[in-house]
Protein: Tryptophan--tRNA ligase
Organism: Rossellomorea oryzaecorticis
Amino acid sequence: MKKQVLTGIKPTGRVHLGNYIGAIKPALELAGNELYQPAYFVADYHGLTKIHDKEEMNQLSRGIAATWLALGLDPEKAIFYRQSDVPEIFELSWILACFSPKGLMNRAHAYKSIVEENLHTGREADTGVNMGVFTYPILMAADILLFQTEIVPVGKDQIQHVEIARDIAESFNHTYGETFTLPQYVIEEETAVLPGLDGRKMSKSYNNTIPLFEEPKKLQKLINKIKTDSSPPEAPKDPDDSIIFSLYKEFATELQTEEMRNRFLTGIGWGEAKKELFEVMNVHLEEPRERYNELMASPDKLNEMLLHGAEKARKKTRPFLEEVKMKIGIIHS
Ligand code: ADP
Ligand code: TRP
């Protein structure tokens, strides 16, 4: 039996390098391993907690799907779908909600940080919080548990959500006997947090991202914006303290990385380092960018693939959800 690996990305912004390095690349590596059965999806209903514009939702959602495919996800090998096309997830989400202590949700970091920010600025604790945001971890638990997932590749900020899914699963199993597989997260330790243009974590919330499939000219412009100090070209520079080097090593070969490390230590101008970064990134991203643009230009083809993936997903999720319903006493025969 192959181990089930599952991960989702919510369409709340254009996919950036942080998403790629921290989430997509490691997930694709797992997908290439024969020991695993990957299920990768567009978490569009998670995106709805934030995106309340029809066109934006549609565009971003397609963008996530096209990104996975452009980077080489094989939809024949993986189960590749849109969350909203698999209704069993939402049915299970309600069931799990009835096993999720409210206090557990109060402690979930995304919600907690909104509350803290609100209180800090003198607003009411729950200002701007919709119930989708509050129950976000329950829907995520349903995503994971419905597929009897063993492994969830995510970025560091998602660890707590996977732990919550385990907690909910344990609570259910305790009441009804072994039902849900307890999932484990895997994170890419090395690159857990990729820095953005300003040195903080690259994140759409900080407006410091480099979109993964940015056109070359704009990509170069963004790279030129990376914050550097005023040391002269000949001054030795610490590669491990440089955003440019952190990004460079994600796209360069080992040999190139070693060479660049030496150039930093012996002195390289920031302009030169940025140029080299652009080159190595552009070579790496040229082909997938082209595939991405092609897919974005054929929405019908993309849709068909996703619907086909959802059918595959539902073959697996329907019988398991029935089992769960039998256990809780929702039996209609
Ligand atoms: P953002 O911070 O831009 O809102 P998301 O929260 O949508 O990004 O993250 C999607 C996935 O990408 C998550 O698994 C997250 O951990 C990962 N990720 C996001 N930003 C980074 C980063 N700077 N470095 C590494 N991984 C990241
Ligand atoms: N919450 C994840 C994020 O913000 C996206 C997500 C939704 C997810 N459901 C999931 C990730 C299930 C892994 C497994 O990045």
Q: What stands out?
A: Residues 9-10, 12-13, 18-19, 21-23, 154-158, 193-194, 201-205 surround adenosine-5'-diphosphate (ligand 1) (CB under 6 Å). DSSP finds 14 helices and five strands in the chain. The first helix runs from residue 17 to 31.
